[in-house]
Amino acid sequence: MGAQVHIRRPSSTQRSEVHAGRAEPRSPNRVLRWLASAFGLALLAALAGAGTAPAAENPYQRGPAAVAENPYQRGPDPTRDSVAASRGTFATASVKVPEGNGFTKGVIYYPTDTSQGTFGAIAFVPGYNGSWAALEWTGHWLASFGFVVIGFEAINPGDRDTARGTQLLAALDYLTQRSPVRDRIDPNRTAVIGHSMGGGGAMSAASRRPSLKTAIGLAPAIFSTDMRTMRVPAMLMAGQNDGTVTPSYVKNFYHQIPGSTEKSYLELTGAGHGFPSWTPNSVMMRKVIPWFKIFMDNDVRYSQFLCPLMDWTGVSAHQSTCPLLPGGPTPTPTRYEAENSPAVCTGTIDSNHTGYTGTGFCNGDSAVGAHAQFTVEAGTTGTATLRLRFASGTTTARPASLIVNGSTVHTPSFEGTGAWNTWVTQTLTVTLNAGSNTIRFHPTTSAGLPNIDHLEVSTT
Hints:
Blueprint lengths: L3 E5 L6 E5 L8 H12 L1 H8 L15 H6 L10 H5 L7 E5 L7 E8 L7 E7 L11 H7 L3 E7 L7 H17 L7 E11 L1 H12 L5 E5 L15 E6 L7 H10 L6 E6 L13 H16 L17 E6 L13 E4 L6 E2 L2 E3 L10 E3 L8 E7 L3 E10 L6 E7 L2 E4 L2 E2 L9 E9 L2 E9 L7 E9 L1
Helix pairs in contact: 1-2, 6-7
């Protein structure tokens, strides 16, 4: 598909939009699905000459039938005015997060309505030396459109993008597993967003956890992520007058994202580097909200606002991979229980602490060298996401080596979880070979490993 360029000149301001074509032709099924979502089944049926298709056959249909077919869709049909509003249809509340969860000064914002099922979860971090107070205005705004949001500050104000990415993932894990609102959240629908160094952190987090539904970088300072490997749908937003993270800098990273990954670039007219900070920014939010709705809720009712861009107010340039279509369901990970073969536990198999899955867990019994090993299968060589569930009633971290097929690839540290029956999950990314692989968690101190419940493996 060739690039389509639309030039508009409202008043004296010229704005240009580019719908960048993909590197490969779009499949007929993909285009037909987009036609169905954008124009309704009647037009699709007319084009196919087959009459009106049953509603159940089209998961992207707009209108009342979509509510039943898409279990994630929340709220009434959107309009141009509703997307531009500073509040959605959900009443919201907030709760502060206690310290010691891998980030600091966290606040959770959530819809109070529990009648419509669970919501997607978003983690949001500010930039270098930035405070959450500068971005606090986004919390209730996003939650009112049907998301659970955790905003926080970096542990160290000068943390760079990789550290902020790690903290974004820790915040999501806390939000979905241990927070007081975890029962309101679908843990399979998570996303990250950040400003400046935090925007680079969002890209870092997405590169390490490909199961994320999307990532948004606001004037992103990207130092550590190879965007050529990005598989998570990504929106990059720049300020036209930003001299710190310039539009050309951001656009360069946008073009590095492969054509097979949904992506969008937006440039805000006259905006400087601090465009998300302190003052509510409606231009930013009426692009961010549809993006989150499309990729977190599979809600293609919101595609009309971005493909093509409906409202150019405050936007000087735009590129995207239209039509923007949400991905398929997240692949179900394969679970390997630590107490069952082919897993090997060189400690004891116990069941004296509640909350484990399966029939028990691996207790290294604080023995030097006592390890937990899993034999896992991969269909092809490539990246895999590991999620290790563990509990540790101590206050001292227990470091370990992650050894894959005989080579140490990570040195994770397992923090205390507060009690032996409080289970948490640590996520790591590794490369697996096609076929059988051995994954060993080997303690590096005399404290040994925490109790290991199971390992979940997702290949991409």
